[in-house]
Amino acid sequence: MITIPYLTALSTYFSYGLLFAFGQFRDFFRKIFDWWQASNLQGYAPICLGLEDFYIRRLYLRIQDCFGRPIASAPDAWFDVVERYSNDNNKTLKRTEKISRCLNLGSYNYLGFAAADEYCTPRVIDSLNRFSASTCSTRVDGGTTTLHKELEDCVANFVGKPAAVVFGMGYVTNSAILPVIIGKGGLIISDSLNHNSIVNGARGSGATIRVFQHNTPSHLEKVLREQIAEGQPRTHRPWKKIIVVVEGIYSMEGELCKLPEIVTVCKKYKAYVYLDEAHSIGAVGKTGRGVCELLGVDTADVDIMMGTFTKSFGSCGGYIAGSKELIQYLKYTCPAHLYATSISPPAAQQIISSIKVILGEDGSSRGAQKLARIRENSNFFRSELQKMGFEVLGDNDSPVMPIMLYNPAKIPAFSRECLKQNIAVVTVAFPATPLLLARARICISASHTKEDLLKALEVISQVGDLVGIKYFPAEPKKQLQHQEQQPGKDTIKLE
Amino acid sequence: MELAALNLVNATLNWVTSALDAPSARAVVFGVHIGGHLFVEVLLLVVILFLLSQKSYKPPKRPLTKKEIDELCDEWVPESLIPSITQEMLSEPPVLESAAGPCTVINGKEVVNFASANYLGFVGHEKLLESCTSALEKYGVGSCGPRGFYGTIDVHLDCEARIAKFLGTHDSILYSYGLSTMFSAIPCFCKKGDIIVVDEGVHWGIQNGLYLSRSTIVYFKHNDMESLEKTLEKITSENQRAKKLRRYIVVEAVYQCSVVIGMNKPMIVHSLLKWSRRHGNCKVQWVNVDDTLFWLVQNSGQIAPLDKIIRLKEKYRFRVLLDETNSFGVLGHTGRGLTEYCGVPIEKIDIVTAAMGHALATEGGFCTGSARVIDHQRLSSSGYVFSASLPPYLASAAITAIDVLEENPYLTLKLKENIAILWKGLSDIQGLSIASNPESPIVFLVLEKSTGSVKGDLQLLEDISDRALKQESIYVVASKRSTLDRCPLPVGIRLFVSAAHSEPDLHKACESLKRVAAAMLRAHGGKS
């Protein structure tokens, strides 16, 4: 729940209204201009109709330089951001040869495997020489190498399930698995803030979709009871099966899922649980095994566990872990397994090596150090930001920290000012978040050192003062251990 | 007696008249004379109003009580998450122990590999490996972020520019997975209410994209231009008023599957004659399943006639989406794909997509077209915006692959020669026949005489490929399908030809396949 101060809400609405009005004005003039000039469409309907790309053309393009910044090095703790310039007011951006070395607070590099690693990279290059960059075939047709088999065993072992299957891309994993396990006549109950890949997979399956309030097990119970009692829409036949889809860490909120309560509710009503651990696998938990370990949930209670390797393992791809029968069935029917190229062998080797490092099987304690460092870094950074008066979301131990900005003008201001001082942050606005709740999202990594974090804090504090996003009163420096948060008067609660 | 009754009646009448004529009954209100009959009328009115104001009887609404909901929840039994495992689900594919090049190692033995779509032989090429190694050392493996949030690495931008330059288009966009290219590009441009005309034999990625786009989908017969024309005609005549309706045709350049058309007996002969007159290079086979004759159109591996499609598109004002996964790097004398092969300028195709996992021997996919098309996808394509970007070493491998292809156009010629050798060698194979186009890099073998059921066919083909692998060291695969796939795939054996296959290997393959096929069909014929 985010409490937005009354004045801020008002000014945000006003800003968006102004931008919208200006946009409509310019569209009107553009229409007149186009009507005056001959159209070159010759009878075809325009490829983008009316208001579909209004947001892109009139709002997004103004601040396009804050997104999609190219980099020229590995996305490690410090990286090189390529400078861009524009001659036509941000409509097109051209690259220059100049680069600036910035602190990386935006990439998903939770355990620091993004750059060349001393254990992983030599093995990856070996596997490249042995198996080449791609197998050029699907898993069932000559794309399964010994590396893939080893990878699946390794992942199943790490996650704590009997078997696992690996795909080449995390997005496709969700989109292609949900249609296979549930179809018409089934019910999918998903959290209101689930990721786009889950929404796409659910839509593609043909099952009925219901949404429950974000992270509220009581509302989930209410929806389950209602739906089981009512049955399928219109015919009222009983549902064939019910799957509840939740995520481990929600990437835009930084919150952990209330997994124990949700699992209890699902067990009571005989629904299946599908857990998407894209951000939490490898990053939370004592040995990095994700939210199940952190919150003390037995992995046998979660029916299907899904995750991706892009974030903590520095590679690409996604996996599904479950019982042996489930995995066998998926290997027989899932289109992503039967029709899509198998995961690239060097990427597979990177995952295997990074899992070995995390578990300490490479003979050093780097894995345990990394896990401890990311926990310390996240907690330190979060508490410092809150002390400074920023409105920071998310739970303790989660490496994702959104800082609320609200106003559309503050989005580019924050981003550009930070970049000037060599800090690279990510700002997110509509449509990834609700319209009023724009935010800057910080992702902490285990490769950030204490000095890096202190520098970042200094810069963010300066920029925060300049831009005016310290919505809460700052704690005076020489004060007590716990902080007191006093939201301003006349707040509106937004859920 | 009568007099008394008469008197009584008269008296009653007099009494009633006097009552009604009583002064009270005759009042003058506002200059209006009110008679006694008004009383009755007013009474009647009051009764009517009273009845109208009564609510009609509805059975009372009784929502379920908590106890009842509890009971329903206890009684409900869900289906199990997956159906029970059958024997065929337990089969495991063979495991490779080396790179998937023209020859590979399975179970310690070296086999000739016809199962990898390594058309130009780039798997194991030193230039590619070199560029990958330097990219790995510089950038690490993953890109750790989506394209909008510092996941755009300069190699991605270079790769996009290189592809656009190679194909001669304005711009291109990279996706991180081949399968997601089509199913993210289609919902970007097609929304509810648009019309898409699509070939029956397209693969699952396209089918999923069409389903997600929620547009109206009309299928036309596999690679049949007359059917396409009829469909376009019908749609245009039905929707003449809709100016804002977007209309698309989706085709694949080289199809990986073909189609089974079921018809009943009277129609068969007529259609058969028409069909065989039009398509010289197809063989027709009769399969009798449950009294309905199935007519196997053995045209998989078929190449779409692009010039005809372009003419139809311009006549009816449709836009074309072309999927060049299996033709990029293969067709055309410099490998630029179907547009070069058919002599069509690439500006006429609105959207071209391809997966790079075939000829270019890397992973991922790309989409290319005009600047407007590409720019729109950068913000509205879900597989691009919400997913991590392609690992940088694969992007640099793609750039190197295109460089090598451009410098050595003889690779496409070598591939064509290999296909021709294989065709010649397999044309007289017993019990199987080639069903693909002579220029297609996928050589598709189907059974001449089916066992009677699709399952039986599949089993036989699997046995043939297993035997070829174990006894003759030739690795071929039988086609597989997912339960989600709408297109009725035929079953057959697929051979992916590569430019890196040597002649002795190809001859060996032909001989071995002939031997195995003869043996298996004899054994099977003996059994049944």
UniProtKB/TrEMBL annotation, chain A:
Matching Pfam families: Aminotran_1_2 (PF00155)
Residues of the Aminotransferase class I/classII large domain: 102-460
Cofactor list: pyridoxal 5'-phosphate
Record flagged with keyword Cell membrane: no
Coiled-coil portions: none
Pathway the protein acts in: Lipid metabolism; sphingolipid metabolism; Sphingolipid metabolism
Transmembrane residue ranges: 6-25
Catalytic activity as recorded in UniProt: L-serine + hexadecanoyl-CoA + H(+) = 3-oxosphinganine + CO2 + CoA
Cited SUPFAM superfamilies: PLP-dependent transferases
Keyword Heme attached: no
Catalytic activity, EC: 2.3.1.50
Membrane topology field: Single-pass membrane protein
Keywords per UniProt: Lipid metabolism, Membrane, Pyridoxal phosphate, Sphingolipid metabolism, Transferase, Transmembrane, Transmembrane helix
Intracellular or extracellular location(s): Endoplasmic reticulum membrane
Similarity section: Belongs to the class-II pyridoxal-phosphate-dependent aminotransferase family.
PANTHER family listed in its UniProt record: CLASS II AMINOTRANSFERASE/8-AMINO-7-OXONONANOATE SYNTHASE, LD36009P
The protein's name in its UniProt record: serine C-palmitoyltransferase
Natural source organism: Hibiscus sabdariffa (roselle)
Automatic annotation (TrEMBL), chain B:
Pathway(s) annotated for this protein in UniProt: Lipid metabolism; sphingolipid metabolism; Sphingolipid metabolism
Main enzyme class: transferase
Record key words, sorted: Acyltransferase, Lipid metabolism, Membrane, Pyridoxal phosphate, Sphingolipid metabolism, Transferase, Transmembrane, Transmembrane helix
TM regions (residue ranges): 27-52
Leader peptide range in chain numbering: none
KW Transmembrane (keyword) present: yes
Protein known as: serine C-palmitoyltransferase
Natural source organism: Hibiscus sabdariffa (roselle)
